[in-house]
Amino acid sequence: MRKILVIATFLCSLTAQAMPDNIKLVGQGQFSYLFWDLYQAQLYTTDGSWNNYQQSSPVVLKLTYQRDISKADFIEATVDQWEHLQGKVSGQHKDWANQLDKLWTDVKKGDQLSCVLLPDSTVQFYFNDKLLGDVTDPAFGPAFLDIWLSDKTSAPKLRRQLLQL
Fold first, then answer.
1. Which of helix, strand or coil describes residue 9?
2. 125-149 pLDDT, tens digit each
3. Which of 58, 82, 109, 133 is in Cβ range 3.0-4.6 Å of 103 for a Cys bridge?
4. Based on the number of CB atoms within 10 Å of its own CB, is 151 exposed (0-12), middle (13-18) or buried (19 or more)?
């Protein structure tokens, strides 16, 4: 009985972790592809301004979906964006995609997926404010968030909105 209680307490502690609440909005914008609105994006930091990944952490990117999107399509789009930014897909990108496949789920209209880059470089993912899990590779957070925040992004209008440029 005691073991069950310990396991249950541990599992509850995993899902009870909350997103940072000491954050302020930097900017927000709409991402559309052709004539489809795909998601609203919001970027948050502790002081509501963007400097860089180290000075601004925690960094929170919230995506609120306006369409149903499968996990497979979302992961494929992520890898495509890494290829766009880097000119190729590396083994590291493939490893990260495998980790995301274990964390993410399909999204429906109205669902929210959040990425939280913590000061220790860990990235936590939340689905509708419930912790999905984390990626501990310190290179992952900037590589993932660069999809939206890099000056090489394929969505420059959204970047300007998120960073208030």
1. helix
2. 999 999 999 999 999 999 999 999 9
3. 133
4. exposed
